[in-house]
Amino acid sequence: MNREVAISKALSKLLRHAAEEAGLKLDAEGYTPLDQVLKWQRLQSLQPTFEDIRTAVTDNAKQRFSMKLNPSLNTPPDPASENPSDWVIRANQGHSIAIDSAALLIPITIEAGNVPDIVVHGTYYAFYQPILASGGLKKMSRNHIHFSTGLPEDKGGVISGMRKDAELLIYIDIQKSLQDKTLWWISDNGVILTEGDENGLVLTKYWKKAEGRRQDVGVLWEDGEQVAELPQSVRNRKAPNGKGPRGRRENEKPKGNGGKGRGKPMKELDVLGGGDGLGTE
């Protein structure tokens, strides 16, 4: 793993999941002082400069972070400042720690006219049966279920919200869901988010279509009704890096601290819909 990726992963881990245990306080919009972020042990070990952090914010392909001058300072800082104490930083989405969705995100409403034409969640064949067993896509331990407004290969591209290697696409009838009073949001980096219903679910009745992406699987759901079974030939296909439905290689013993690198299990929150399938990055 190169240093830029390591810094980005550390920022994601801290700002999305570990801020509270690290003693950081997020404001209503999810921002926290950059100078305090840089004191976190995992980041300290990488010794990032201010320019390293700015690069992680501006050059991240999925635009996962935002940074701005600290509005709480008595004297407005110089926009050219490279002093970390003059800046605040946040993750744009993907949190498991408590946040105020209304302050961090833009609400999607029929009245506002900002309802996307396409809302799609990408997942893997290995996770399809657990998703059905749960009744739909579930946010798990994250605050939201993540969706994109298209596919990575579409013209113009999709910045964030779906892994490029997703095998199964679940399209949502967001209009119907909104009419049933489900709250939907869009993040600064264009990810579509929802807390789901009272059980944290986007039920299968809202599935406009579910279909295989790269294999000859065809359409499995249409207009909230199951029209075909997932073929047996792909049901046991492992998720990326040989991981099974529970995120661990078959017969693999758990490693300390979840293992490192490719041995790290895919979190349950990414199995049933919560998150974007990207772990902490």
From TrEMBL:
Composition bias type Gly residues, residue spans: 272-281
GO BP: tRNA splicing, via endonucleolytic cleavage and ligation
Q: Where is this region: Disordered?
A: 230-281
Keyword Transferase carried by entry: yes
Q: Offer one Pfam family short name for this entry.
A: PTS_2-RNA
* GO MF terms held by the record: tRNA 2'-phosphotransferase activity
Catalysed reaction(s) here are:
2'-phospho-[ligated tRNA] + NAD(+) = mature tRNA + ADP-alpha-D-ribose 1'',2''-cyclic phosphate + nicotinamide
Sorted alphabetically, the keyword list is: NAD, Transferase
Could you tell me which Gene3D superfamilies the record lists for this protein?
3.20.170.30, RNA 2'-phosphotransferase, Tpt1/KptA family, N-terminal domain (1.10.10.970)
NAD among keywords: yes
What EC number(s) are associated with this protein in UniProt? 2.7.1.160
InterPro entries named in the record: Ptrans_KptA/Tpt1, RNA_2'-PTrans_C, RNA_2'-PTrans_N
Q: What does this protein do?
A: Catalyzes the last step of tRNA splicing, the transfer of the splice junction 2'-phosphate from ligated tRNA to NAD to produce ADP-ribose 1''-2'' cyclic phosphate.
Family according to the record: Belongs to the KptA/TPT1 family.
Can you name this protein? 2'-phosphotransferase
Which species does the entry assign this protein to? Answer: Mollisia scopiformis
